[in-house]
From TrEMBL:
Pfam families: Abhydrolase_1, Abhydrolase_4. Residues 304-341 form the AB hydrolase-1 domain. Keywords: Hydrolase. The lineage of its organism: Eukaryota, Fungi, Dikarya, Ascomycota, Pezizomycotina. InterPro entries: AB_hydrolase_1 (IPR000073), AB_hydrolase_fold (IPR029058), Pept_S33_TAP-like_C (IPR013595), Serine_prot/Carboxylest_S33 (IPR051601). This is Peptidase S33 tripeptidyl aminopeptidase-like C-terminal domain-containing protein. Belongs to the peptidase S33 family.
């Protein structure tokens, strides 16, 4: 079959046709298109590509729209919050760079901490404390996660009633996160490029050279680029007195210790706020006998416990914390589970077992959606659609598609790497990027490629040297955007967490790459670049917790795993559950990376109940998602949702369509 000549409707008629579909499907399609129009932000998730990838995006939007600057906050050993970003509070918490060394002013890390305040003050009976969240990575910004999703996560975990009519047992939570040491707004920050312009040049070169497997010489180029970045990064930071030792202290172990500091300082802050509220109450009522507020908000010095929801790499951080400090576990949800064995010991071969099945599912959903719901539809079922995809991938490897420029962008070419990149996005987030991928595939099949070129253009942000950068010189504050340092910050964590993970020759790496490709032909090339980023990495962690990575925690952990997860297969969660007695695994019967990629009222309510009461779901619980890719409904129950469930599902949809990409 000549796939390029297949008769398919064009973009605009296709959208007009979709307007005739039922209301739920129309809403989903509109949300999908809206996301497509605005997709440009590219953060990290579990094991992101360390030295290639889509070009970095602009600074986080909230900061650019306000006058707030992190540099205005003086770091403190207590949580001293300042209003920031409109509706949030920010602090810079000083913690030791080296927990084994004496406290010195030159040996400190200032963690950027952000809080979305609870709907009630700490003095209120319904105040449930702080829930720490982590987006994954490593290298993901907790600050960005709270700014993007803090209010939405509150709506998931808070009691569903308003504070005015909540029952005595209902709770409302602060949502808190932080940029881990070396990352984004925490200082000192790891940066291996003298300015944003140099970084963008590097990324443009990476894009032009393509992914591993994009050419016969891709490994030869990739190997040398990885060595150049690793060697240059470690040697430059070694020669910078302000950051000379940070690379030895950014692995997961000290970050878990930082979480202890955060919950302890939060307890101290809570007590201070409670005392002020008690004094105000006593003054207003001219009484001094009632000490309820002080009792409720008392700082449990040295005994504060963690409430936490970690995703992807955040599960590795949470499991490490639970292993190091089992007595401090209060409520810990670990979603999209990383195996501590494979991660810490290498060689990172326990991630891609279910990945190819996700791509098969996407094409099966495409078939179920039919030609009106999936532009890349072909007669013959999901296998026929996948065959068309594989043929297109093969053809474009030999013959990339040239695309003429227009009034919005310049000329472009669509390559094998471009298709693999959008495929990766669809594998991570099938519900959102599955429909986008097939529209772009059909755009190539039609022989134009203009939509794909527009998509690529939206991922690029110009990075010019400012006048102040030129005056102040390389690596100065005006030359570097901290939120752009994901590449080297991620390498610094990954390559020091697993001892010796970067010790391999080019030939040994080639064998490793082939092993990953045998595990997953759809993502093996991309995933191999994770470890390639450690080639030549010269730094070692000064403090590494060596286990055991198991414990009897003071409250059982809730694990969550998708039936088919892109890079953290369900078997990881099943294994990790056995290492923490009493913990429970909730399986969400969906595809993609972490449960929020497929909205499920069942999962959300289980998480809410766990944070509200500590009650775990029954062993063997299987939660269905409420919506599948291409707007397919899982059950007719959507039509009968009450107002509260409808509102919660809308919140879950908002989270799903704004999850950062790897």
């Amino acid at each position: 079959m000549d796939f390029k000549s297949a008769e398919m409707t064009q973009w605009s008629p296709q959208i007009r046709e979709r307007q005739k579909k039922p209301r739920l499907k129309l809403l989903f399609c509109c949300l999908t298109l809206l996301l497509w129009l605005f997709v440009s932000i590219d953060f990290s998730n579990t094991f992101p590509r360390l030295w290639k990838g889509r070009l970095l995006a602009a600074e986080e939007t909230p900061e650019s729209a306000t006058s707030f600057q992190w540099s205005q906050i003086t770091p403190s050993q207590e949580l001293e919050y300042h209003d920031c970003y409109g509706g949030f509070e920010c602090a810079r918490l000083e913690v030791p760079m080296d927990y084994s060394a004496p406290i010195k002013a030159t040996n400190q890390v200032a963690l950027a901490v952000v809080r979305k305040p609870a709907k009630v003050p700490v003095s209120d009976l319904h105040y449930g404390g702080a829930i720490l969240i982590n987006p994954g990575g490593p290298g993901g910004s907790g600050v960005a996660q709270v700014l993007d999703h803090g209010a939405l996560i509150q709506q998931v975990v808070d009691v569903e009633r308003t504070p005015s009519d909540a029952e005595d047992s209902g709770k409302y939570f602060d949502i808190i996160s932080f940029d881990p040491r070396g990352i984004n707004r925490s200082t000192p920050t790891i940066s291996c490029f003298q300015d944003n312009f140099a970084r963008q040049v590097w990324n443009l070169q990476s894009e032009a050279e393509g992914l591993l497997g994009s050419s016969d010489g891709s490994l030869r180029l990739g190997w040398r680029r990885a060595r150049a970045l690793a060697d240059g990064c470690t040697s430059r930071i070694d020669n910078d007195n302000s950051t000379s030792s940070i690379l030895e202290h950014v692995n997961t172990t000290p970050v878990a210790a930082d979480m202890v500091e955060i919950i302890e300082r939060h307890g101290q802050w809570r007590e201070s706020q409670g005392r002020k509220a008690q004094e105000a109450l006593n003054k207003a009522h001219k009484c001094h006998g009632n000490r309820d507020i002080i009792s409720r908000t008392k700082w449990r010095r040295g005994m504060e416990k963690l409430q936490y929801w970690g995703f992807s790499y955040g599960t590795l951080l949470g499991a490490t914390f639970a292993s190091m400090y089992p007595e401090r576990v209060s409520r810990v949800v670990l979603d999209g589970v990383v195996s501590t064995d494979d991660y810490y010991n290498g060689p990172w071969l326990g991630n891609l077992q279910d990945t190819d099945r996700i791509l098969e599912r996407i094409f099966e959903y495409c078939d179920r959606a039919g030609p009106d719901g999936c532009q890349f539809w072909r007669p013959g079922g999901g296998k026929a659609i996948q065959a068309a995809y594989e043929k297109l991938l093969h053809d474009i490897w030999d013959d990339p598609l040239s695309v003429v420029g227009n009034g919005r962008r310049g000329p472009e070419i669509i390559t094998w790497s471009d298709i693999k990149d959008i495929t990766k996005n669809a594998l991570y987030q099938p519900m959102i990027f599955g429909p986008i991928m097939v529209e772009l595939l059909q755009d190539i099949t039609n022989g134009t490629g203009s939509l794909f070129a527009d998509y690529k253009e939206k991922g690029r942000v110009p990075a010019c040297r400012s006048k102040q950068c030129i005056l102040d010189g390389p690596f100065s504050e005006d030359c570097i955007s901290p939120s752009w340092n994901v590449l080297e910050a991620t390498s610094a964590v990954l390559c020091t967490d697993a001892e010796g993970i970067g010790s391999f020759t080019e030939d040994e790496f080639r064998e490793y790459w082939q092993t990953l490709k045998a595990q997953s032909w759809s993502l093996g090339d991309y995933w191999a670049e994770t470890r390639l980023g450690c080639a030549g990495w010269q730094k070692h962690a000064k403090w590494r917790f060596s286990g055991p990575f198991s414990a009897s925690t003071s409250h059982p952990i809730l694990w969550i795993g998708n039936t088919l997860d892109t890079v953290t297969p369900l078997r990881n969660a099943q294994h990790m559950k056995t290492l923490f007695p009493g913990s429970v695994l909730l399986q969400q019967d969906s595809e993609g990376h972490c449960s929020p990629t497929a909205p499920s009222l069942c999962t959300a309510k289980a998480v809410r109940k766990y944070f509200q009461t500590g009650e775990l779901p029954l062993a063997g619980t299987l939660c269905k998602p409420d919506i599948k890719p291409f707007g397919l409904q899982v059950a007719d129950g959507l039509k009968r949702l009450n107002a509260q469930d409808s509102e919660l599902l809308d919140v879950l949809m908002q989270i799903a369509r704004t999850i950062p990409l790897p």
